[in-house]
Design goal:
Blueprint: E1 6-10, E2 13-17, E3 23-25, H1 34-52, E4 60-64, H2 67-79, E5 83-86, E6 97-101, E7 120-127, E8 130-133, H3 145-155, H4 159-165, H5 179-198, H6 203-206, E9 209-214, E10 220-224
Parallel strand pairs: 4-5, 4-6, 6-7
Antiparallel strand pairs: 1-2, 2-3, 7-8, 8-9, 9-10
Length: 243
């Protein structure tokens, strides 16, 4: 990993541009030449590397997914420097963030109890040619898998048809994006993981955004999903009516 340094003058002032697009004006007493550029390059590189390291407790990522999906993600995550623990169908122990491929609509609530107590959860799944990445869940107040479904039903002009289709075997088809679609999907996961590991300003948006990718057309879109309080329960375990 390196940081490119451009050294040039602006109105007679020695100026340096770092590889990430930041500009620095050097005081006249700082001198000039390759030695100075090297010193600045080393310092900027150290700062960027320090900022790229995960916060304590956010180094390890778990994955619950079938073997073919895990095999496709592992080399990409390794190249990106992400420590990925694969648990097959079981939750890997001691991870800060769990990636969960919900193979069926019924599984989308499987790990809703983890946020706030053990680990954050990032859920993804496929529906035909579509791939979805749910909002990142860090706390119990974040949108649950069931709340995401209800948000989609509320926004859909074909809510009854969508609800009925989610109960068919077709909604549990294998998750198998290919080629560029897989690259886009993986990039989305890594973007969210990086924001979580570094507690970046973009993290808040990832906790309220449903991401959708059409693997045929490669069209991606984002949809807001806000959490809402679940209705309480009456005597006998019955839910209070929604108003």
């Amino acid at each position: 990993m390196g940081t490119a340094i451009d050294s040039f003058d602006v109105a007679g002032r020695s100026t340096i541009r770092s590889g990430d697009g930041a500009f620095f004006h050097l005081p006249p007493s700082a001198g000039s030449g390759q030695h100075l550029a090297t010193d600045v390059s080393d310092e900027l590189l150290q700062r960027r590397q320090a900022g790229a390291r995960p916060l304590p407790g956010r180094e390890r990522i778990g994955l619950v997914a079938p073997e073919p999906v895990a095999a496709a993600l592992l080399p990409v995550f390794h190249e990106a420097g992400v420590d990925l623990a694969v648990g097959g169908d079981r939750e890997p122990g001691s991870v800060g963030l769990l990636l969960h491929l919900a193979a069926t609509p019924a599984e989308r609530n499987r790990f809703d109890a983890l946020p706030g107590s053990r680990s954050a959860v990032l859920r993804f799944y496929g529906e035909g040619d579509l791939v979805f990445v749910d909002p990142l869940s860090l706390e119990p107040a974040d949108p649950t898998g069931w709340q995401v479904v209800r948000r989609r039903l509320a926004a859909s002009p074909a809510a009854a048809e969508l609800w009925a289709w989610l109960d068919t075997p077709a909604a549990a088809a294998d998750f198998a994006p290919q080629g560029v679609a897989m690259d886009l999907f993986t990039a989305r996961l890594l973007t969210i993981i990086t924001a979580w590991q570094r507690n970046s300003p973009s993290l808040a948006a990832h906790r309220r955004t449903l991401w959708r990718l059409d693997t045929l057309t490669l069209a991606a879109s984002e949809h807001p999903v806000l959490p809402f309080p679940e209705p309480g329960r009456l005597g006998g375990g019955l839910r209070a009516p929604l108003r």
